[in-house]
Amino acid sequence: AGLALCDGGLVVDLSRMTAVEVDAGARTARAQGGCTLGHVDRATQPHGLAAPLGVVSQTGIAGLTLSGGMGWLRRAHGLSCDALLSATVVTADGEVRTVDADHHPDLFWAIRGGGGNFGVVTSFAYRLYPVGPEVHLCNVYYPARHAREVLRACESHLAATPDAGYAPLGVFGRVLADDELPAGLHGEPFVALLALYPGDPAEGDAALRPLREITEPLFDLSGVTTYLAAQSLLDEDYPDGDRYYWKSVSLPGLGDEMIGRLVDHAARAPSPTSTVDVWFQGGAMARGPGEETAFTGRHAPYLIGIEGNWSDAADSERNIAWVRDTFAALRAFSDGGIYLNFPGFLEEGERLVRESFGANYERLAAVKAAYDPGNLFRHNPNILPKA
Ligand SMILES: Cc1cc2nc3c(=O)[nH]c(=O)nc-3n(C[C@H](O)[C@H](O)[C@H](O)COP(=O)(O)OP(=O)(O)OC[C@H]3O[C@@H](n4cnc5c(N)ncnc54)[C@H](O)[C@@H]3O)c2cc1C
After folding, report:
1. How many CB atoms lie within 10 A of CB 271?
2. How far apart are CA 245 and CA 323, in angstroms?
3. Burial 301-310 (b: 16+ CB within 10 A, else e)
4. Long-range residue pairs from 327-333, CB within 8 A, at least 24 positions apart, any chain
5. What residue owns the CA closest to ligand 1's atom 19?
6. What is the 3-state secondary structure (H, E, C) of the chain?
7. Fewest beta carbons less than 10 Å away: which of 41, 45, 61, 266?
8. Whose CA is nearest to atom 3 of ligand 1?
């Protein structure tokens, strides 16, 4: 989103703070604020444990957790911010504060969804869950012309198995010219279904099979893998130095017209590596951690991610235009919010931030006034301190 760096301001770089301490007996881990997902997963997996994080191992845990954090475990164990037990926060007055349910509970509420508005978070303590080391991963690619059938089948499957611990991700894209994929399929529009079964891999094979047999796939890369490998499966799709412009829209449902728009807009992407993604939500994510958090959007059944991904600066204008155009076309079906970890650049600024936090905005603004009255931390989806 262009929020990690700024002109005329100060960047606090935590990237050397990557220590992770695991207490396997208590099923907790404390990770320093510069960790990527990979640092945490590599420390917890030797114990057969994992924190619910995102799906690309190079992502930072800090920004991800502070604005929610959605990954393969979201329906089984909730969001990253739901697994947060405590955090260390350096607030605008320079105080180092330990925050949890009993200490600064207002601040603890706010940092679970309110983003980087409240201070520099230097460590995160997570609740861990038994996952891996081996898991079954569904990774099947269908022709995009079967999108309605595929998404409907996935929707019905989840409705029939409400306690299923896997969380599908539908991806609209085009088959890349990759040596490992059949040459005849290069460029073919697809809708893929990815899902990780967080329990026994053999059970996962059976549980995920219906998602792999909806119709004749283009190809099916599903199988047993390690949790660590699954967590970095998508890393190669996001090389450093490429250009990225992403937006998101929460949706109350997936009607036929909406699916048609997903297919059309994905097919029009100027870059072959761009995708339109359907995050199936629900499960533990919708139920929440049993206490309130500032994260909003947990009850929407779908989140659409619009990913403009390209290499050449000369192509920026048309790729950004595609993302904006797709966002506008899908937003008409939305009940308002976006996911603030996929914000794109917030052209609509304050209005969109308010809309996305909805009823939580006023309370967040009061917490902001208490801990950052001068709005020192403002290079973010910004919450204005309550006057
Ligand atoms: C390749 C890729 C894959 C992604 N996959 C997922 C995914 O699967 N699920 C998901 O939910 N999101 C995903 N995201 C979005 C991701 O959650 C956000 O980009 C998030 O901001 C990344 O966190 P970071 O620590 O790297 O933030 P940075 O880019 O370093 O910082 C962004 C902002 O976060 C805040 N911030 C960062 N660190 C701190 C800190 N220590 N204290 C206070 N505020 C801080 C600040 O406001 C900062 O401006 C992905 C992003 C990318 C680039």
Report:
1. 19
2. 7
3. bbbbbbbbbb
4. 327/247, 327/249, 329/261, 329/265, 330/249, 330/251, 330/258, 330/261, 330/262, 330/265, 330/304, 330/306, 331/249, 333/249, 333/251, 333/252, 333/255, 333/257, 333/258, 333/261
5. 341
6. CCCCCCCCCCCCCCCCCCCEEEECCCCEEEEECCCEHHHHHHHHHHHCEECCCCCCCCCEHHHHHHCCCCCCCHHHHCCCHHHEEEEEEECCCCCEEEEECCCCHHHHHHHCCCHHHCCEEEEEEEECEECCCEEEEEEEEEEHHHHHHHHHHHHHHHHHCCCCCCCCEEEEEECCCCCCCCHHHCCCEEEEEEEEECCCHHHHHHHHHHHHCCCCCCEECCEEEEHHHHHHCCHHHCCCCCEEEEEEEEECCCCHHHHHHHHHHHHCCCCCCCEEEEEECCCHHHHCCCCCCCCCCCCCCEEEEEEEEECCHHHHHHHHHHHHHHHHHHHCCCCCCCCCCCCCCCCCHHHHHHHHHHHHHHHHHHHHHHHCCCCCCCCCCCCCCCC
7. 45
8. 56
Q: For residue 229, what pLDDT is reported?
A: 97
Contact criterion met (CB below 8 Å) for 309 and 275: yes
Taking the centre of ligand 1 as the mean of its atom positions, its distance from the CA of residue 6, in whole angstroms, is: 15
Could you tell me which of 101, 102, 83 has the C-alpha nearest to residue 44?
A: 83
Q: Which residues pair with 237 in a beta bridge?
A: none
Query: Which ranges of the chain have pLDDT less than 70?
Result: 336, 345-348
Domain annotation for the chain: domains and CATH numbers: 134-331 (3.40.462.20)
First to last CA, the chain: 28
Predicted local distance difference test score (pLDDT) of residue 3: 83
**Residue 375 contacts by C-beta under 8 Å, 6 or more apart in sequence?**
368, 382, 384, 385
* One-letter identity of residue 234: L
